[in-house]
Design a protein that fits this description.
alpha/beta, 13% strand, 268 residues, six-stranded mixed β-sheet, Aminopeptidase
């Protein structure tokens, strides 16, 4: 349950944008297993990030977006990233992880699952949603690398404006490259210059260093550069109501598209 949109061949660049967490769909066969409401599903999505990148194909980038909610399966987690409390009969569970590839708690610590799911249910969700998404991303990386010699994968995410409690506001943009290991310096530095040049604050790898996908795909020594970009939601949405701010959406979208243009033209 995803959409992959390629640019016209004449304008294509080596850039891929993947948006794994903006989806809101909870299939009817999964809904009874959850105890979260629509407002929680909306709040814990990467709100409107698919909209912010919607015009990426017009700027030469392939756009891959998931429609399924992360409460069904988290596409930025490893397939075996679950614990015994989440999947009761998993043959090799990890230590306690309440928000792995299947979430059993919300971001504010409330229960998300009615009860632990079975290993068979996990395998079904992985086969229907996780594996096809990553197969499509793998194939697109292979295709673009064959054409251009290198690929830049931009993982589009959003984050609450601050952490729990009375923590200070986070930076406007948090690029994550796991300690500058998943992308080359030219890519990382260009990302930072683009956002600071637009008047936004940037804090690399803090509090998000890049997830499983960034680590899995980011191998700059093989010509594949991956960088996660967390966007502060307060820039473009009312965090209380979830409503978009038209001016903020337009501003952030313009900056992101200028970044894609620059990454597409970058000689690596």
């Amino acid at each position: 349950m995803f959409e992959l949109v390629r640019p016209d061949a004449s304008t294509e660049t080596p850039v891929i944008v993947e948006v794994p967490h903006a989806g809101l769909v909870v299939p009817a066969d999964v809904r009874p297993q959850l105890v979260v409401g629509d407002q929680t599903i909306l709040r814990d999505s990467d709100l409107y990030v698919d909209r912010l990148f919607a015009r990426a194909p017009r700027h030469g980038a392939t756009l891959l977006t998931s429609q399924v909610s992360r409460y069904v399966v988290d596409l930025n987690r490893a397939p075996d990233d679950v614990d015994r409390q989440t999947v009761r009969d998993h043959p090799a569970p990890r230590p306690t992880q309440s928000r792995g590839v299947v979430w059993r708690s919300t971001t504010d610590g409330q229960p998300a699952l009615r009860e632990a799911i079975t290993f068979g249910e996990l395998e079904r969700r992985l086969a229907l949603y996780h594996a096809p998404y990553h197969a499509a991303l793998d194939a697109e990386i292979t295709r673009k690398k064959a054409r251009f010699g290198h690929v830049v994968v931009v993982a589009g995410h959003s984050m609450p404006s601050s952490g729990k409690g009375a923590q200070p506001r986070r930076a406007d943009i948090v690029p994550g490259s796991r300690g500058r290991t998943t992308a080359g310096d030219a890519v990382i530095d260009l990302v930072e210059r683009t956002f600071t040049g637009a008047g936004l604050s940037v804090k690399h790898d803090d509090p998000y260093r890049g997830g499983w996908s960034t680590q899995r795909y980011g191998h700059p020594d093989r010509g594949v550069h991956a960088i996660q970009i967390e966007i502060n939601r307060a820039l473009y949405a009312d965090e209380t109501t979830g409503e978009p701010k038209a001016a903020g959406v337009a501003r952030v979208e313009a900056i992101l598209l200028s970044l894609l243009d620059a990454l597409g033209a970058l000689a690596i």
